[in-house]
């Protein structure tokens, strides 16, 4: 049996996410935006809660099209707040709209969201070598800097812990433990 990271449960959706997605570098602007919004939606909850709703989020959030999300009106927001397939937290839903608006400003300034975000790790993944879950930090200087820069540009639900979880998810850092079968696979991508 394959050894995996200790944070994993035995739920199939979680195992598939761990084995195929978590820690794999993402360079697509739209996917990065989606993951940042989903990480913010997770605040105070477990990732599995969001993961199980990801398909519904894509439908409800206009497939994470920032142009459409930036134009949400009160009717759209009220409709979202009645959607049982997403986390119906008014602050989080309104933040998604605001984050879409901030995203569009970053695109104008930097040309791409990828270039902006990946600059916090000098454009390449940081390969850590943690032996156990207890060694992995909740934040780093890079996630602190990313959080500060995103907040300065108007993003919400992007604290240092959320930013670090985002960096782990999109492969800016490889935080698979060294005993996990994915550690070397991700490191060698």
Summarize the structure.
By secondary structure, the protein is mainly α. 53% of the residues lie in helices and 2% in strands. It has helices spanning 12-20, 29-42, 47-51, 54-60, 66-69, 74-80, 90-110, 113-118, 141-152, 160-169, 182-187; strands at residues 126-127, 173-174.
Q: Which properties best describe this structure?
A:
single chain; mainly alpha; Endonuclease III, domain 1; 2 strands
Structure description:
With 189 residues, the protein is mostly helical. It has one domain (13-187): Orthogonal Bundle (Endonuclease III, domain 1). The chain is built from eleven helices and two strands, in the order ααααααααβααβα. It has helices at 12-20, 29-42, 47-51, 54-60, 66-69, 74-80, 90-110, 113-118, 141-152, 160-169, 182-187; strands at residues 126-127, 173-174. Strands 1-2 form a two-stranded parallel ribbon. α2 (29-42) runs antiparallel to α7 (90-110), α2 packs across α10 and α9 crosses α10. The longest helix is centred in the middle third of the chain and has 21 residues, at 90-110. The radius of gyration is 16 Å and the shape is globular.
List the helices and strands and how they pair.
Layout (H helix, E strand, L loop, with lengths): L11 H9 L8 H14 L4 H5 L2 H7 L5 H4 L4 H7 L9 H21 L2 H6 L7 E2 L13 H12 L7 H10 L3 E2 L7 H6 L2
Parallel strand pairs: 1-2
Helix pairs in contact: 2-7, 2-10, 9-10
């Amino acid at each position: 049996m394959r050894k995996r990271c200790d944070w994993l449960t035995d739920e199939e959706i979680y195992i598939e996410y761990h084995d195929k997605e978590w820690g794999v570098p993402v360079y697509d602007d739209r996917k990065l935006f989606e993951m940042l919004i989903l990480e913010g939606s997770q605040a105070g909850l477990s990732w599995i809660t969001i993961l199980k709703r990801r398909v519904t989020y894509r439908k409800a959030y206009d497939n994470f099209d920032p142009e459409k999300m930036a134009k949400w009106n009160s009717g759209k927001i009220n409709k979202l707040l009645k959607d049982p397939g997403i986390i119906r937290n008014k602050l989080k839903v309104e933040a998604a709209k605001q984050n879409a608006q901030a995203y569009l400003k970053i695109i104008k300034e930097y040309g791409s969201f990828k270039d902006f975000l990946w600059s916090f790790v000098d454009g390449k993944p940081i390969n850590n070598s943690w032996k156990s879950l207890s060694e992995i930090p909740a934040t780093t200087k890079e996630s602190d800097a990313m959080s500060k820069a995103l907040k300065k540009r108007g993003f919400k639900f992007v604290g240092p812990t959320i930013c670090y979880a985002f960096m782990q998810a999109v492969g800016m850092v490889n935080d698979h433990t060294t005993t996990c079968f994915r550690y070397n696979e991700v490191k060698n991508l």
